[in-house]
Structure formats: C-alpha cells, structure tokens
Here is the input.
Amino acid sequence: MPWAVVGLWLAALVLLGPLAGKFAGIQQNRAVDYLPDSADSTQVARIQDRLPGGESTDLVLVYHRDGGLTDADRRTAAEQVAEVRGAYDLTGEPRGVPSEDGSTLMYPVSSTQPGQDEEARNAFVDGVREVAEGGGGLSVEVGGPGALNTDMGKVFETIDGTLLLATLAVVTVLLILIYRSPFLWLVPLAVAGVAAAVSMAAGYGLHELFDVTVTGQSGGVMTVLVLGAGTDYALLLIARYREELRRHERPYDAMRTALRGCGPAILASSGTVAAGLLCLLAADLNSSRGMGPVGMVGVLAALVAMTTLLPAVLVLLGRRVFWPLIPAFGSEPKARRSLFAAMGTSATRRPVTVLVGGGVLLGALALGTLNLSGSIKQEDSFTERPESISAMRTLAREYPERSSRPLTVIAPADRADGVLDRARATDEVAEVAPGRSGSGWTEIAVFTTAAPETPAETRTIEALRAGLDPEGAYVGGPSAQQIDLADSESRDRKVIVPLVLAAVFVILVGLLRGLVAPLLLLAAVVAVWGAALGIGGLVFEPVFGFGGTDPGLGLLSFVFLVALGVDYGIFLMHRMREESVKGAEPEAAALTALRTTGGVIASAGVVLAATFAVLTTLPLVGLVELGFVIAVGVLLDTFLVRTYLVTTASVVLRRRVWWPGRLSRAPELPVVAEGGGLRSPAERGAAAPTRAAPGGTTARS
Here is the structure.
C-alpha cells in the first residue's frame, strides 16, 4: 500500500510537472490586473486596447543637471530622442518640456508597437534606456507608467524563485533544530516540495479553465502557504507517529493510529484556512478574488501530500529515519520538564488577572493602528528605488506647477469636443490634449496642476469623474487606478471580514460542538490581528521608513491571521475537549491539553511565522508589510494567546466553555476508591504519567 501511494504521487508529478513550469508565465502584475471589472480605470485600459495600435507604452525621458542644462546637454537629449524616434514607431513627435529653472528637460514618449505583449513592452523600455545615457554630470532617467510597469514586472519575475529558495532554507534550518536528526528533516521538506509543484500546476489549471487572475503577490503567498502550512501538518503528524511507534511494533500500524488520532484536527485546520480563502471570491478587487482559489489549492495540496505521501514515505523508511533518537517499541519517552506545563500552571494560579492583563496588553498594542499612515504611493512602493521611481521624483521636484503623469480620459467619439471643454473648465487642470480615436472612442490626456497621488490630484480626479460622467466618459490612468484600488479594498473589508468570521465559526462549532469555545477562539484571533496590525503601525514608518500602508494589508492580514491562527486554537481546544470527555476537571483538562500540544504548537508557530517573515526580504513594501504583520501575529498567537489567554479563559469559564453542548451540562463525576484512597478522575489523570500525543489522545502508562 505505501509503495502504491508513492507510485501514484510520482506519476502525478511527472504529469503535472510541465504545467507547474508554466505557472510563472501566467502571472499578471499590471495595476489594471488588480482592479475590479467595474472600475473607471479598468474600462479606460480595456478601451485603450481597442484603439488604433492597441495599448500604448508611455515613457518620460528626464534629462537633469544641477545648476542648469548646457547647450551640449540639450543637443545630447535631442540626438538621443531622435535615435529613439528612428528605432521605434512612436505615436507622435516627442516634444521637450523644460523646467522653469532650466535644470531639467523632459520628453514624453509613447508607442503602441509593443502592444499587450509583456516581453515586447519590456524590450521597448530597455531599448530606450540603452539609448538614453548621461555622463559628465548629466543624469538621464527613463520613467513614466511604462517604465514603472517594467520595473514592477522585473521584481515579480524574481519573487517566485527567490521566495521558494529562501523559504526552503528557513524551513530546513528549523526542521533540523526541531528534529535533531540528520535525515528526518528531509522527508517533510521533500514532500512539501512535491506539494508546491502540484499547487503550481493546479494554479495554472485554475487560470486556464476558469480565467482566475494570478498575480505575483498571490503566487508568492501560495508558496508560503504550501511550505508553512504543510510543515505544520507534518510536525503534528510526525510527533504523533513517534509516540505511536513506542506502542506498536509495525510502523504501518503506528501510522494508521497516528492518522486516526490527529487527522480530524488537521482536516479542521486546513478546512478553516480553505474556507477563509474562499471568502475572497466575494471580493470586488480582481487580485484578491483570484488569491482565494489560488491560496486554497496551495493549502489543499499541502493537506493531501502530508496525509498521504508523507505517511507512506515514513512507513517505508521505518524507525531508522528518526536516528539517532529512534523510538523503540515498548520504550518510554525520556522524562522532561514541560515548559508549557509550567507556564500553564503559573497562569492558572491567578487566571482572571492573567486574562485581564493579556487583554489589556493586546488592546494597548492595537492602538498602534492609529499610527498607520495613509495608502502608499506608487513612488514609495519599493524598498529599493528603481529608475522609474527616481525619474518620478525628479519630475515632481522640478515641475511643481503641473503633473508629469497625465490622467487618461476616454470619451465617446461623438462627444469628444464637449468632454474636452468640460475637462479644460475643471479646476486645477493645467492642460488637455486629444489623442487617438477609434472604435467609437477618443483618448484625451489631462494634465493637472497637482503632483501625482496627492489629495489635490484626487480632488481633481473626482471632479472630472463627476463632471464627465453625463457625457459617458471614463477617467483612468495610474493615479486613478490607485484611487480605485483603495476604494475596492475598503468595500471588500466590509463584505469579506464578516464572511470569514462566519465560515470559521461554523467549522469550529461543528468540531467543538458548542458556541462559547468557538466564540472564544474567534475573539482571540481577532485580538491578535488588531495587536499585530498595531505593532506594524508602530514600526512601519518610524523604524522602517515606509511612506504609507498598502491598501490591502488590513483585509489580507485579517484573512490569513484568522484562518491560520485559529488552527492552533483547534489543536489546543480539541485536545481539551477530549480530556473533558474522559472526565477531567476544567483546569486539569486545560493543563493537560497545553502540556501535550504546547511543544508542537510552538514549533509549528515558529515555522509558519518564519515562512511568512521571508516576505520581508522582498523589495516590495506591500509584501514586506504583509509578511511582518502575519509573522508577528502568529508569534503572538502561539506564545501569548494560546498559552495564557485561551487556557486561563477556559479555566475561568469551566464547563461553560462547552455551552450549550452536552459537556457543559455534565455533572461532576463522583470520586471513587482507588489504591486505598478516594481520588477523582481528574486527580487520577493528573497522577498517571502521560506520553504526549499532540493533536490526539494521551496515552496513560
């Protein structure tokens, strides 16, 4: 049977491997790919694709010299622009626009030659950059929306490989430290790699069959989920398998018992994550809606691999895979002082004090959210400034009287003249210029007097949309896209947050068979989310120097922290319920659950936090912020909330924690005679030595 399972997985890997290799090629990373279908800026981008020449790639060549440009500088600029004009089919004759102080000269350049082909657009941008060279004190930068998209795309091209290698390295180190074995760590790591390949193939299938949007962000998050969640499931299963090997002579029997013991908790854990991610299908934002199914297939691939392939490989390798700490049949585990038992005991001495103190601490940390700055601008979205951002900042500094980045208005061709007049009459509009026409539409470039992505420009965009809407016109462009992104994120938070809470609550009620315990776990993870976000507010700008917060941070961090954080609550409360069913008193049940699951939960929490922390090494501020908040939240959940707050709350509530289930109504069991004395079932359980079996039942000696 194990050989058959391994054979099926190898066959699947051979079949799906070529599809996994295509996953990176389907990722879409333009700003418009993230937008909802109904947004004005999305309509503008789609109509532009139908205009003569299709989508245009817009660049700005920026020539600058401190103290003022020389005649030689201007000749150099004119010669280089002429060379670009000769090498590429531009939509118009580039016209130089000098700054007021004469230190800067910008040449807007646009071409429809590359069309929608990403490689052709990148080649166009790179070709222009090769031509536009400075020297001798003359700086030349190529900016504009086209250059920004190319720089952003190059970052995402490196994310998949960098993220996978970095995550594998982190997981490898942690597994070696956890298992202290030269061989065992290889098994879950190899299985996680197989799960990652399968998830990439599944992600490619989702895109091809259902047109699911796959972005660099969702692809990176899927990689982290597969390796992080998959390793967590492996830790739980291997810990239980090690214990069962001491009770069963055959590894096959030990693994079968281990799967029966911790399987329900692992299934419920993966179910909450999958359900939370599927709630993203209700998102208006295209990127978030696509991240739901992409992340879900990652979690399910990890679940299936860790509950089929991992057990089969471990059974085939036998006990020797644990060398040098081989669990011999009939042996007892080495007695160790349980750190988590000591922590739990100290917490239950004054449970109300610990509970109130922990709640106050989390509330105080959550106040840091008040320090979160507004939505991050495109120019601040990189941790390492690319050339397009440097050009953008130079233009903003040298041309304060007008924006260097036009808004794009698409108007019905028969109403274009009226739209032009209305746009010119709008406050804070510096210049209006008609562009291409075709397919019943006319393109109009609108330059405002405000710098890009400032409150003044936002007011102008809103005024244009209000004034031009009766004419059937749409207002788009990079700045308008950022506004539409922020508006969609705000709408999605109001819709998806309740859906995630409801979905996770239903799963918890089914597993724990009550209402109070699920509500307790949900309250805990929401408190963790607020505290982690608050810590982010305290460090993002003051410590990291970030210029804003990614609009999607609140929603995505909530989905992941609730769906992933509740996993550890499931492992703890499920074990606590098992002890209560066996007759343990509430305090004894809580301490036993903490003692037997604490070590594995801590290991799993550290692994998951470390995998998300890998996102902080990437050059995009949005991913750094997301990785930081989730990593901090997982650690808070693992070492504060699960260890102290959930445990003490369960002690304070006693049997009411299982209300209205049968356990909440169970009477105290009578004491019985045993060994010449009277002891309650809880006392007998406390006296009997236990062998830890995380995620399952405890074996009594």
User: Anything to note?
Assistant: The mean pLDDT is 86. The radius of gyration is 30 Å. Residues 145-179 form the longest helix (35 residues).
